[in-house]
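DM between two lab members

TW: hey, do you still have the Methylthioribulose-1-phosphate dehydratase entry open?
JB: yeah, one sec
JB: this one, 204 aa:
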Amino acid sequence: MTNLQQRWEELADIKDELATRDWFMGTSGNLAIKVSESPLQFLVTASGKDKRKRTSEDFLLVDASGQAVEETHLKPSAETLLHVEIYNKTKAGCSLHVHTVENNVVSELYGDQGEITFKGQEIIKAFDKWEEDATLTIPIIYNHAHIPTLAREFSEHVQEDTGVVLIRNHGITVWGRTPFEAKKLLEAAEFLFRYQLRLMEFTK
Ligand SMILES: CSCCC(=O)C(=O)COP(=O)(O)O
Ligand SMILES: [Zn+2]
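TW: and the structure you got?
JB:
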């Protein structure tokens, strides 16, 4: 199997797994995995597809500016520019974007603050924060319809090889050095969002 095929299968497996969680409602969401460093090329989901289906047209290879590397009728995800920022600025190997009801509600509740901070939660360790009083702050950015503008604002929060950003009333984007790490961060963030919403039900 070539490197490209291996990365394809890896991303397809993650897509299947996130699909079992019902995290691709209404064709939402997009995923990417780095294939080569120099030149920078990554696989990204084709736009507008039902990401619950596994097909030979699920992904296409794009370059450092998000353009398809080869002639294809497939369109890269409408949000490819966000993945472009991640791979150009960090050593991340995988980036995942999903819309869930929980991440949308949390982003709306805390959107005016521009961030949400979690503390006293064991699962914060998933973000490599091991101190007893560790806090995790997730930025929340405005959902600009103009994707280059969205990508520019998103880019301000892309500083490390791992990260997580909420886009208000839109969804979450996470990235990690490996697909395993990106998925771990996504699951941990969604756990925290569910916890927060559940807790609020009892503290009204
Ligand atoms: C119907 S969801 C609207 C677009 C979006 O936010 C998304 O995540 C999916 O867009 P893509 O072009 O990647 O399919
Ligand atoms: Zn989206």
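TW: got it. The pocket of zinc ion (ligand 2) is lined by residues 28, 79, 97, 99, 170-171 (CB under 6 Å). The mean pLDDT is 98.
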